[in-house]
Design brief:
Largest sheet: none
Shape: elongated
Structural class: mainly alpha
CATH superfamily: Membrane associated eicosanoid/glutathione metabolism-like domain
Order of helices and strands: HHHHH
Strand content: under 5%
Oligomer: single chain
Number of domains: 1
Amino acid sequence: MLTLNIQPEYGYVVLTAVGTCFLGTWHGMRCGAFRKAAGLGYPTPYADSAQMSAASAEDKHKLYLFNCAQRAHGNFLENHYMALTTLLIGGLRFPLLSSAFGVAWSLGRIVYAVGYTAKNKDNGKGRLAGAFFWLAQLGLFVNAGLTGYNMAF
């Protein structure tokens, strides 16, 4: 039988987890602003090559930035469930460490998204400034794995 005692510091984990959900909303709002600037209606998920070819240079750049914002949002969604799951699991044993990794992950995601849509960076290379989120995500994975190991053995 395993008895689970939740430490009071787990509240930080919950607050961090909720913060990541607000971050998803922020991503969506950014995409909406880039969509509006690009003049793309719903349900168009990305500006395609035909739209890019037909656009003026100025409009082409707006379409490109929308695509970058969409890709940053998609990458967030692809990684959010893993980060959120490992944040909540790892926080059971190491709540402050888990929360710190979660905050670092969130900050990395913001820098990643803003960098991806930097007007002066080609090919979305600005996103690389936020690549430190991968280290935070690795920390979350290891932390959750250690929590599971300590519970099992």
